[in-house]
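Fig. S4 source data, part A: sequence.
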Amino acid sequence: MPLLEFSPNGIFCAQAGVYIDPWKPVQRALLTHGHSDHARPGHQFYLCTRAAQPVIRHRLGPVSVETLGYGETTWINGVRFSFHPAGHIVGSAQVRVEYRGEVWVVSGDYKLENDGISEAFEPVPCHTFITESTFGLPVFHWKSQERVFGEINAWWQENLIQDKISVITAYALGKAQRILTGLDLSIGPVFTHPGIENVMEVIRAQGISLPPTRRLDPSLRRRDLSGGLILAPPAVAAASWLRQWKPYSLAMASGWMALRGNARRRNADRGFALSDHADWTGLNEAIKATGAQRVVVTHGYTELFSRWLESQGLEAASEKTAFEGELMDMAPPEAEVTE
């Protein structure tokens, strides 16, 4: 029996009797991070990093959560577990699992570019690496975040000249904080949708410094936001909530914006390719850095990416999970993987 197996409830370590990021209720769950596709309600006991705990409690309520610092070890029935930085969002981790000299690492979601907020990704040597593949096609190559932020600030400045309010959509946890730290606040103030500001407050309470924002509340009128930028969740792009801020310019920040036409199909004026997941190069670099000879590929382009890894001399397999990565409704048709 392998050290980790993919069960109907999630990634299971039978020797320890625990699951990693389970998608159905279990007794004992180890969580890689606080996004809702990885941190689900209904488990009896949770274990996560100290930095991930506040937002997990915020989202799941008064659950039973224990924590570990990065690199700290816990033993469960002879199996050694530890968390290591994944670089995805604040508190995100890879899970290292060791038993009788065999080492597996579950990556969760990860990115290699250091965003200055999340704990920077660290490769963990292992025999078997379980990796995501959200952007596991050669077409996905990210620009540097400094270049993307320059484009966002230029768009904001242009909207200011045209007396348009800038509205940019981003996930409340992770992407919103990353964008906020890259904005040029000399252009104007930043306003946040309540769903985003709630998460901002949790992260600030951890002692993490973030630039100032103002919560959007019913007392604010269009004139109060003149020259400003609104950070809002992706769902508002299709909501009537936006109408009150006309005239505005709507932008989306997502890795899927690297594909021509995706912004237009989502009724956005601009798309900025900014992702908290590794691109094609990042995935390959991360796998190589682990030294793993066996790779299990999950959510994303699983079969295509696993075939690519096999062509590079690795033993590879794909497994289905309930993880979502970034929104998949903008993904391109599957294509052949080439260099």
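Fig. S4 source data, part B ends here. The radius of gyration is 20 Å.
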